[in-house]
C-alpha cells in the first residue's frame, strides 16, 4: 500500500430494515457495508475449522434490469412534499432537491440554487474530493526519529489523527497504536529516552479554521488540527468530553508514558535531516478513514483528510490549501461549484456556503456507475435508525433501514443529504437544508427533516 511520508448505541428497528439495507447496497453494485470494522477479543481455545458444503452456483437474486424500477412522478412527489416543506419547525423556507442518479433527472427542487450554510453535510464534498484525488489505499504514517543527542527522540506527524493511546478499544477502527510505536523505539535504541520533541511541520497554518468559535476547539467535537494526534485529540479513546488544546504535545506525552518515562520533557521540535528512523506505524487506509469520518461526522478526521487532498494537489496542508483543493477537485470532476465558499473540510465554520444543487450533484456522482470514483462515499453514510449519527433517528419511520444520509447541524441550520430507496425500489438522492431554525429549535427541526425524508421512503409517487 502507498504510504504518506514518515513525516450503538446501535439499534435495529426491525430485522426487515437491515435486510432492506443490504438489498439497497446490493442494488448499488458495490460493497457499501465496508464501514468501521468492529473489533473484539476472543478468549479460550480456538474454534474448530468449520466444514462447509460446496457452494455451487447460486441462482441470481437481483433482476437483470437493476435501476429499472418505476420513477416517481414529479407532480405527485411535489404534492406529497408540500405540507412537510412548510413545517413551522423549520423556521422559514428551506432549500431542497431530489434527483434520480440513474437518469440524472431532477424530480423536485425548491430554492436549490440558493447558497446556504451546509454545516456537516459539507463533509460529503470532502469525502468525494478525497476519493477523486487520493489513492484509496494510502496509509498515513507516524514515525519516531533519532534526536540530535543520545536519548533524544523526535515524534514526527504524518497527518494521522487516529493514532490510538490504547492497544485496544480504539476510537477508530484499524488505528495504529502508540504502544506499537513505543515497542519499536525501545528495541531500536540502546539507552533510556531522556527527551521527546514533536515535529508537526507536515501541516501548516493556523490550527483552527476560519470562523470557528472560541469554544469549538477544543470542545467535545473538535480540537486544534495538528499533524500528529492521539484519539483525535481526546483524553482517552472513548472519552466524550472536552478534547486537548495541545494535541501534538499530548501525543508526545502519550509516547513518553508508553516508553515508561512519563516525566521526561516533551516539547515542539524538528526532525533532523537524515535522522535514523527508530519506529513507524500506519493508519487504516484512507478509504476506511473516509467511511469513519462520515459515519461519526468526525470534524478532526475531516480536516486531516481534506489536507490529504491539498497535498495530492501540491498545495499547502493548511485550512486554506485544503479548502481550495476540495473545491478544485469537485470542479475538475465536472460539478458546478458556482458561488460555493469552502473554508474548512468539516463544515464546522458558518462561513461555508453551498447549494442543495451541489450537494445532490455530489451524491449523484457517488451513486452513479459502480466503477465511478466516489462510489465508496456511500459506504460511510449512516443508515437510518441503525448506526452512526442516525442511530437514534427514524426509529419508527418507513425510512428506517432504507435511507442513508449525512446530517448537518450548526446554530440556525439543520441539514440532511443522502440516498433513499422508494416504496417501488427506486434509488433517489436528496438534500434538504433548513437555515432559519430558531434558537433552541434544533431537535424539532431534525424531526421535521426526518418526516420530510420519510415521505420519499414511503412513496411510489405515481
Describe the protein:
The structure is a single chain. With 462 residues, the chain is of the alpha/beta class. The protein folds into 2 domains: 74-135 and 288-295 and 314-457, 3-Layer(aba) Sandwich (Beta-lactamase); 141-284, no CATH class. The chain is 28% helix and 15% strand. The chain has helices spanning 15-27, 74-85, 123-133, 178-188, 247-258, 286-296, 299-312, 319-332, 356-366, 377-380, 442-457; strands spanning 95-99, 106-110, 141-146, 152-156, 160-163, 195-199, 228-230, 266-268, 277-282, 403-410, 413-421, 427-434. Strands 2-1-12-11-10 form a 5-stranded antiparallel β-sheet, with helices on both faces. It is elongated, with a radius of gyration of 23 Å. The protein starts with 14 loop residues before the first helix and ends in a 5-residue tail after the last helix.
Question: Can you give keywords for this protein?
Answer:
disordered N terminus, 462 residues, single chain, five-stranded mixed beta sheet, 12 strands, alpha/beta, 15% strand, 2 domains, Beta-lactamase, five-stranded antiparallel beta sheet
Please provide the ordered H/E string of secondary-structure elements: HHEEHEEEHEEHEEHHHHHEEEH
Give the fraction of residues assigned to helices: 25-40%
Main β-sheet, spatial strand arrangement:
2-1-12-11-10
For the record, give the distance between the C-alpha atoms at the N and C termini, rounded to a whole number. Answer: 49 Å
Amino acid at each position: 500500500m502507498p504510504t504518506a511520508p514518515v513525516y450503538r448505541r446501535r439499534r435495529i428497528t426491525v430485522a426487515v430494515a437491515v435486510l432492506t439495507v443490504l438489498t439497497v447496497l446490493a442494488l448499488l453494485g458495490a460493497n457499501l457495508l465496508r464501514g468501521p470494522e468492529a473489533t473484539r477479543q476472543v478468549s479460550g481455545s480456538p474454534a474448530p475449522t468449520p466444514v462447509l458444503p460446496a457452494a455451487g452456483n447460486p441462482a441470481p437474486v437481483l433482476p437483470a434490469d437493476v435501476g429499472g424500477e418505476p420513477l416517481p412522478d414529479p407532480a405527485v412527489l411535489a404534492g406529497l412534499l408540500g405540507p412537510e416543506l412548510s413545517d413551522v419547525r423549520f423556521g422559514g423556507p428551506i432549500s431542497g432537491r431530489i434527483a434520480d442518479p440513474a437518469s440524472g433527472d431532477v424530480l423536485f427542487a425548491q430554492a436549490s440554487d440558493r447558497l446556504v450554510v451546509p454545516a456537516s453535510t459539507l463533509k460529503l464534498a470532502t469525502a468525494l474530493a478525497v476519493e477523486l484525488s487520493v489513492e484509496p489505499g494510502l496509509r498515513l504514517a507516524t514515525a519516531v526519529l533519532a534526536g540530535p543527542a543520545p536519548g533524544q527522540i523526535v515524534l514526527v506527524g504524518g497527518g494521522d489523527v487516529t493514532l490510538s493511546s490504547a492497544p485496544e478499544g480504539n476510537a477508530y477502527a484499524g488505528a495504529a497504536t502508540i504502544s506499537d510505536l513505543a515497542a519499536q523505539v525501545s528495541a531500536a535504541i540502546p539507552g533510556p529516552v531522556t527527551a521527546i520533541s514533536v515535529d508537526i511541520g507536515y501541516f501548516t497554518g493556523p490550527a483552527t479554521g476560519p470562523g470557528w468559535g472560541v469554544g469549538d476547539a477544543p470542545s467535545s467535537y473538535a480540537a486544534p488540527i495538528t499533524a500528529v494526534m492521539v484519539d483525535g485529540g481526546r483524553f482517552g479513546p472513548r472519552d466524550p468530553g472536552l478534547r486537548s488544546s495541545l494535541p501534538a504535545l499530548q501525543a508526545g506525552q502519550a509516547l513518553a508514558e508508553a516508553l515508561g518515562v512519563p516525566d521526561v520533557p516533551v516539547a515542539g521540535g524538528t526532525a533532523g535531516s537524515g535522522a535514523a528512523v527508530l519506529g513507524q506505524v500506519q493508519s487504516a487506509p484512507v478509504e476506511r478513514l473516509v467511511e469513519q469520518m462520515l459515519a461519526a461526522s468526525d470534524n478532526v478526521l475531516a480536516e486531516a483528510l481534506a489536507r490529504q487532498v491539498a497535498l495530492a494537489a501540491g498545495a499547502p496542508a493548511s485550512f486554506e490549501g485544503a479548502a481550495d483543493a476540495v473545491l478544485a477537485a469537485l470542479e475538475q470532476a465536472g460539478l458546478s461549484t458556482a458561488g460555493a465558499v469552502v473554508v474548512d473540510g468539516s463544515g464546522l465554520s458558518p462561513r461555508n456556503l453551498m447549494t442543495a444543487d451541489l450537494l445532490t450533484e455530489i451524491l449523484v456522482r457517488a451513486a452513479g456507475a459502480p466503477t465511478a470514483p466516489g462510489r465508496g462515499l456511500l459506504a460511510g453514510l449512516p443508515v437510518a435508525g441503525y448506526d452512526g449519527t442516525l442511530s437514534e433517528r427514524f426509529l419508527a419511520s418507513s425510512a428506517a433501514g432504507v435511507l442513508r444520509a449525512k446530517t448537518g447541524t450548526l446554530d440556525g441550520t439543520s441539514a440532511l443529504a443522502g440516498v433513499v430507496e422508494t416504496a417501488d425500489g427506486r434509488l433517489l438522492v436528496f438534500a434538504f437544508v433548513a437555515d432559519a431554525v430558531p434558537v433552541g429549535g434544533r431537535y424539532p427541526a431534525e424531526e421535521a427533516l426526518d418526516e420530510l425524508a420519510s415521505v420519499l421512503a414511503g412513496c411510489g409517487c405515481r
